[in-house]
Amino acid sequence: MPGKKIGIMGGTFDPIHYGHLMLAEQIRTSFFLDEILFIPVGKPPHKTHSNSADREQRLEMTRLATKTNPYFHVSDIETKRNETTYTIDTIKRLKESLSPNDQFFFITGADAIILLDTWKDYSELIQLVTFVGATRPGVDLNKLYAKVRQLIADYDAKIEICYIPALAISSTEIRNRVNDEKSIRYLLPESVESYIDTIGLYKTHHPRYEALKEYLRRNLSKHRYEHTLETAKLARKLAIRYDVDPIKAEFAGLCHDFAKEIDRESMLKHIETFTVYFDPCIQKNPNLAHGEVGAELLKKYFDIEDEEILDAIRWHTYGNKNMSTLSKIIYVADIIEPSRNFEGINKLRHLAYEDLDQAMIAYYELNNSYLKESKSSVHSYTHEMIDHITRSI
Ligand code: ATP
Ligand code: MG
Q: Which of 24, 62, 70, 140 has the fewest CB atoms within 10 Å, i.e. the most exposed one?
């Protein structure tokens, strides 16, 4: 019985993208293959970069990406092993588990063919598979064909070279784009995109980010916790827009409501301990001091020392006349994060990306009319903040 023709598509797939999928599909149809087996590597022998997805995550993304093509399958043969895996060992093990008549087509970039004689036991590997080298613009064809002729002469190698349309997509580029809050839509399947987003893959965070996130998840109400995550996310985006440190902004956004759910009695004690200015509006509503109190608690009990981050947390509720761009970002992100909804918010959302000062003034005006109606007082720092901004523009 003639065996199947199986394409083997190995890669780090960190993450898998349309370049990989297009390559596999082009080769499947050009060589009349019965299926393509995607094999995410376990421990990549050459590649290490910070911020990489772990192998379970790479395997899952590969599964999600290939789901809609009935000819595409995924193997965990390499990801389930702990040690560095070599193609020769994987092919031998696959041969054992499949029919002896099956033929393997090992798909790879043409640049890898040029380096083939550096692979482990390559002369044996050449006997076991047909290599399909995909060339892209930029590959030195003279060098490639010289290498192919040599491998055929020396080892009777089976090598096919195939021209594939160029897609200037790489996993490295995608990881960088995620970290820079740029869109990755249309570079990879939507299912993989939302997986990356949900897990929060490929983003560099403040060293204490995970610890604080876990603390807040356990100590804040669900609603407040979700608000802090949204604020952190938006603060990171605004920071990139205004060229300030996104890692600090994200962390300050995450921590800004650290003290928000402290009860009245404890809040009054903290206000005294930390000598928070006792403005009449704080006398009326001590909870308003949660920014200043939160910053002091984070400093005292969590060793957060960065004053720029602490200031952003301190002044996020009533502001202050000396606010850095980072502080303004947290102030604004808190007001307009996606779960917020009030009349006039769309204008603020638009202004936030245009001009932070204008967004703050617009919010003050919105708020002032509401506060007048409800006869509450406004913190004197808020007036000072707005005076300062108005004078400086
Ligand atoms: P990285 O940027 O981390 O190097 P990558 O995008 O090159 O990742 P790999 O997992 O290293 O992805 O690639 C697996 C295989 O897919 C390789 O043989 C590679 O040559 C091929 N490949 C990667 N990107 C493309 C692309 N845009 N078009 C065609 N083939 C590609
Ligand atoms: Mg690569």
A: 70
